[in-house]
Specification:
With about 300 residues, the protein is of the alpha/beta class. About 25% of the residues lie in helices and about 25% in strands. The protein has helices at about 30-35, 90-105, 120-130, 150-155, 170-180, 240-245, 260-270, 275-290, and strands at about 1-10, 10-15, 20-25, 45-50, 55-60, 65-70, 75, 80-85, 110-115, 135-140, 160-165, 205, 215. Helix 2 packs across helix 8.
Amino acid sequence: MEGKIIRGIAGFYYVQARDRTVWQCRARGVFRREGLKPLAGDNVTFEITHEGDREGNITDILPRANMLIRPPVANVDGVLLTFAVKAPDVSHYLINRFLVLLRQKGLPAILCFNKKDLAPEEETEAYLDIYRNAGCGLCAVSAKTREGLDALRGLLKGRVTAVAGPSGAGKSSLINALSGEQLTQTGQLSKKIERGKNTTRHSELFLLPDADTYVFDTPGFMSLTPEGLTAKELHRYYPEMEAAGAHCRFATCTHLTEPGCAVREALEEGKISRVRYDAYRLYYDELSGQRPVYVKKAKKAPREGR
């Protein structure tokens, strides 16, 4: 039989067959000898050892489209970056690090602002406007009121999507709202430090009511330091800067101080978000080993999203 691993716990792998039945399976010893470990998201074949108890053995791991190390998941079509509009406040630093990392790995990103019921509509729109040209999908939702969920379901339909973002952003609540049932445990936000408690202990794949639409709930995401990334190539992972940079006077322009920089001209004309550009400068200095540029954290969304 064929199926997909939806979670792995203590040496057991729970495989969802095509008829949606779930089988508790062990991995054959040959995988250990070959240095292979089944991962949540793997498409596998398995043999039944006890039909009544729905037990079996995984016999083969089918070819992977991709895999992530942290969290350890396979065959991901994209990542849903979930940040709260309020409680906790938006971290543009984290958003931009995520976007650069995923673009380097070739994984499509959807940036989702949750808890829109906690902020005025214009504030949420200002946040969305910052990332209009960032090369990612965009949406604003409320897991509590269900507003915006239909649009998000459309973006996720027919795909396997890992959910990432800071604790407290409402990732588990969002998965529950998308599924229409209590699939995952949710936590409370700490009033003292305004951070959420991580209630997810292992990577688990959930099949949503739409056929062939899966979402991963994960206990943590990969390191936000892309492998081999240098300061000189950073601009390649900012689509709006890459497009404008084609018109710079110098081909090696860093978009920081050089004369004839089309990126800074676009910035002054409001065609590039100031928030995005400041994040680029900060990241550039980190990668080049210079003292980071201090970017003051805005308490409110900038006017007109700039």
